[in-house]
Amino acid sequence: MQTKGTNIDLSVDLAGIKLKNPIMPASGCFGFGREFAEFYDLSKLGGIAVKATSLEQRAGNWTPRVAETYAGMINSIGLQNPGIDKVISEELKFLEKYDTEIFVNIVGHSIEDYVEVSERISKVKNVSALELNVSCPNVKDGTHFGTDAKLLEALVSEVKKVATKPVFVKLSPNVTDIVSMAKAAQKGGADGLSMINTLLGMRIDMKTRKPVIARKIGGLSGPAIKPVAIRMIYDVSQEVKLPIIGMGGIMNADDVLEFIYAGASAVAIGTANFIEPFACLEIIDELELKLKEMNVSNITELVGAAYK
Amino acid sequence: MKKNILEIQSNKEIAHEIFELKLKGEFKKEEFIPGKFLHIKCSDNIHPLLRRPMSICDISDDEKQMTVLYRVEGSGTKLLQKKSIGDFLDVLAPLGTAYDLDIRAGEKIFLVGGGIGVPPLYYLGKELKKRGGIIKSFLGFSNRADSFYINEFKDLGEVEIATVDGSLGHKGFVTDKINLDFDALYSCGPTPMFKTLQTLIPEDKRAYIAMEERMGCGIGACLACVCKPNSKYFPNKGYFRACKEGPVFKLHDLEF
């Protein structure tokens, strides 16, 4: 039995996956963990959402790939990844030694691509879940499935036919009605949602008077987008039954709590990892202290507090 | 590589918008090797959000002081410029891959720097001189007011200066003055300079460059600072990361 205020239970259940704490680095902001493993023990993380994986190796976009903005940054990496073969044989292999839940972010040009990658990734022993990325603004067909409810539902239901691990869908905020997209994912059989991906943005250089980013547009992340994420999670979590991994500019434990109050069951830390390699660890520690202060023994009590 | 909280011992303008920052700490030369870089948090808040990559200009003989030169250019360096003696800085260091210091005594070394690419060559030059290298430096600036550390480089050996407007030294670029009378060449500066070096220097000569790239994380995770490998030597190879495989590369290993 837990005594209030002394033993804090940070563990959460996401579609049957038990995370020791609700903190995981967000896909695209942590590579496959190697760089951060030089700083700390990855087993301390609730989970890791690894870099987007596609069937083929992708080189990514040309540089400049980043532009700083007020309280944020625009990125245009373009899904650079070594392709599924190397991801399985090298990257996921490397992660085997860590006691944490691995979420593999998956991208494709077509339903067939997603299905093939999902089927093969499902079979990898140390993978806990799949995260379908239908929301990357930095490639030609990146948001194709994430902005059309019918297509999204079809994609998810096809993937569900082959996936033997829970399927999360990472939603795009670049839509008029996020709730209808979430419902489409649910209808297709998704086990959970990740939200939100980056917002489309642009910066123009003062000297050249041209867009800073080589591909001109990119995805805005960081504290600047947090209110957008909070609003979307608040709306979606009341309309669908799926657990939500919340993300969008989280920098500290207060931000985590705000996402939890809005209806997220766990959170992903993105941009903060770029500024502070220890961000996830610091946030886990800070979160535990916060709960102690608040006299909350179990973090799941707080999910959706904003409307309950 | 680790996170360091370092005390500022001085922070002063030494040329037009060029600042010399001296930091107190423990900087073992076997770790803080020339070519490696620092990633400095300039703000205590969320703007500007990202750290700023900077080169190591010098490490004192007792390994307790590091010198960093920076040009005030954007919001990060404007904040850095206002920091006072006694303030602390959050610095990730040392990061990246260093210059190859493996030379033989008596070898002729060319250092080729442009603008804010000049600082890391000073620390490099000092270390190569200790290893018996005969140093000749080629330093390029936009004009006399922007030039710095010329006397320091003169302590290392012969110095050639070029300025774009001709207000100091040769009018034009440093690359105008380069010949092939060297055993190893080390460079840091803007990409157009490297492009010119590639046309001047045969592929079998030892030549190294340190890239100045727009960076995100500085530790190899965000993939913002990628550089294109020379397809002749690296067919089907994905991009290099300037912060991890670099910033130092062999001159002909990159394609611009």
Short description:
Chain A has 308 residues and is of the alpha/beta class.
Unreliably modeled segments of chain A = 1-5
Top CATH class of the largest domain in chain B: Alpha Beta
Q: Classify the secondary structure makeup of chain B into a structural class.
A: mainly beta
Secondary structural class of chain A:
alpha/beta
* Run of helices and strands of chain B: EEEEEEHEEHEHEEEHEEEEE
Strand count of chain B? 17
Cα shape of chain B: globular
Largest sheet of chain B: 7 strands, antiparallel
Fraction of residues in helix of chain B:
10-25%
Alpha-carbon distance between the two ends of chain B = 29 Å
Instruction: Name the overall outline of chain A.
Output: globular
CATH H-level superfamily title of the largest domain in chain B: Nucleotide-binding domain of ferredoxin-NADP reductase (FNR) module
Discrete helix count of chain A: 9
Structure description:
Chain A is of the alpha/beta class and 308 residues long. Chain A contains nine helices and 14 strands. Chain A has an eight-stranded parallel sheet with strand order 3-14-13-10-9-8-7-4. In chain A, strands 5-6-12-11 form a four-stranded antiparallel sheet, with no helix packed on it. In chain A, strand 1 (12-14) and strand 2 form a beta hairpin. The two termini of chain A are 26 Å apart. Chain B is mostly beta strands and 256 residues long. Chain B folds into three domains: 2-95, Elongation Factor Tu (Ef-tu), domain 3; 99-208, 3-Layer(aba) Sandwich (Rossmann fold); 213-256, Dihydroorotate dehydrogenase B (pyrk subunit), domain 3. Chain B has a seven-stranded antiparallel sheet with strand order 4-3-7-1-2-6-5. The longest helix of chain B has 12 residues, at 119-130. The mean pLDDT of chain B is 96. The interface between A and B is medium-sized, with 34 and 29 residues.
